[in-house]
Amino acid sequence: MASSVKPGSCAAKGPSAPFLHVAVGVIVQQGQVLLSHRAGHQHQGNKWEFPGGKLEAGEPVQSALSRELAEELAIRIESAEPFMQVRHQYPEREVLLDIWLVKSFSGKPRGMEGQQVQWFAIKDLDKLVFPDANQPIVQRLQSLFI
Ligand SMILES: Nc1nc2c([nH]c(=O)n2[C@H]2C[C@H](O)[C@@H](COP(=O)(O)OP(=O)(O)OP(=O)(O)O)O2)c(=O)[nH]1
Ligand SMILES: [Mg+2]
């Protein structure tokens, strides 16, 4: 009997599984890194993240980084440099994390969306729960900063 699912398509993910380009900021000071806690209702909720968010249509990645960190933390980035990119397939979406090392910023970071924001020692990061895509970021930070 013929299947109703077309060859090459997948009922769970489908050809239209969203692809998201995400600008992410790694803010390091004195052996510590600044993390935000994702709300329970968000994708990958109740996990720690590096602050950031999705690019808008046509938006350059550095503009998205500045906008997201202003919206989420109320800080203004003064300089940032590319750190690494991570592409990761979750069951329900694919993400390209475009990760930037924030070299200097002004303002005092605070959780503008009600989220918990906290500095953590880089050596302790492996005790925290992150989205799976973040594993290579944590490894790279630990190899560089401890
Ligand atoms: N910001 C951030 N997102 C991450 C990390 N790791 C990871 O897998 N992601 C995923 C989770 C989401 O699927 C996506 C980012 O989406 P987001 O919810 O932060 O986007 P946003 O800030 O624009 O959120 P919103 O305004 O649409 O609520 O990337 C991370 O360290 N930081
Ligand atoms: Mg975000």
Can you describe what's shown?
The structure is a single chain. This protein is of the alpha+beta class and 146 residues long. It has helices spanning 61-73, 135-145, and strands spanning 19-29, 32-37, 48-49, 52-54, 76-89, 94-106, 117-121. Strands 1, 2, 3, 4, 5, 6 and 7 form a seven-stranded mixed sheet that branches. The relative contact order is 0.24. Magnesium ion is lined by residues 52-53, 68, 72. 8-OXO-2'-deoxyguanosine-5'-triphosphate (8DG) is lined by residues 20, 22, 24, 42-44, 49-50, 52-54, 68, 93, 95, 97, 131, 133-134. Keywords: DNA damage, DNA repair, DNA replication, Hydrolase, Magnesium, Metal-binding, Mutator protein. One of its GO terms (molecular function) is 8-oxo-7,8-dihydrodeoxyguanosine triphosphate pyrophosphatase activity. It catalyses: 8-oxo-GTP + H2O = 8-oxo-GMP + diphosphate + H(+); 8-oxo-dGTP + H2O = 8-oxo-dGMP + diphosphate + H(+).
**Tell me, what is the CATH class?**
Alpha Beta
CATH architecture: Alpha-Beta Complex
Task: Compute the number of strand runs.
Answer: 7
Q: Whole-Å distance between the termini?
A: 60 Å
Strand proportion:
35-45%
CATH superfamily: Nucleoside Triphosphate Pyrophosphohydrolase
Please estimate the helix content: 10-25%
SSE sequence, one letter per element: EEEEHEEEH
Count structural domains.
1
Q: Calculate Rg over CA atoms.
A: 17 Å
| Low-confidence spans | 1-13
Provide a count of the helices: 2
The computed structural class is alpha+beta
**Major sheet description:** 7 strands, mixed
The CATH topology turns out to be Nucleoside Triphosphate Pyrophosphohydrolase
Q: What form results from the Cα inertia axes?
A: globular
Mean pLDDT: 91
Bound small-molecule species: 8-OXO-2'-deoxyguanosine-5'-triphosphate, magnesium ion
